[in-house]
Structures are given as structure tokens and as C-alpha cells.
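User: Okay, second chain of the day. Same drill as before: sequence in, C-alpha cells out.
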Amino acid sequence: MFSFNPDNLLTECKFTTSRSSGAGGQHVNKVETRVTISFDVKESNSLTEEQKILILEKLKTDKNGVISLSSQKYKSQLKNKEDVMKKLIDLIKKALTVQKKRKKTKVSPEAKLKRLKDKKIQSELKKNRAKPRNHIE
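Assistant: Same drill. C-alpha cells below.
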């Protein structure tokens, strides 16, 4: 996993506010509580080139390499700003984590024998459920 400093990253972000959608009475028409964060991955100074490539491959950006997220969960602009910053940092951390490759393993001989034994038992159970055949000779 690559390390990065979230504080440096947040200084490169641009915040915009707008009116939240949905119900809220008369007050909602006056207050801009939705916060949108824009982060330009390509122009970032706090990320290395490898990190930029990883983020651009894994995350959805516009054609200029800008990630945009918004939050309107809370009635407070400050809480929405904190929420959207947390979302961005979590997204970037997740994008920078490299998954370990799975090691192929063989099925043990004991596991193979147990599987065959279980199949045999199941087969016998089903065979015993069948209707008896009339053998007329």
C-alpha cells in the first residue's frame, strides 16, 4: 500500500456549495448546505506518478482526471464538508490498496477421499428411496 498525507491532499481540493434537494420547508430555499468537493488527480503535487495512475485506473473521474463527490446528508454545511472530505480520503485509500494475489493450493488427498465417501453415502440414500422393481421371470 502506498502512503500519502490526507492533509496535503485536502489543501488541493476545491469546495463548492449549493442548495440541497428534497424536503426542508422555507429554510432549505435560503441555505446552501450541499458541499461538493473536486480533486484534480493529474495536477496533484501530494501524489506520486504511480499513485496517480492507480487512482485514475480504479476511480471514476471526468475526462480531465477530476474526482467530484458531494454530500447533503446533514443540515449543516460544516458537517457535510467533513463528510465529503472523509468520503474522498476513504476512496483514495481504497484505490491505493493493492490486493494480494491468491496462492493456488491443491486439494489434499484426505479432502478428496472425504468428498468421495460423502458422495457414496448420498448415492446409497437416493438409491434406497427408489421404488422397488418387479422382476417377473
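The beta strands are 14-18, 34-40, 66-71.

User: Thanks, on to the next one.
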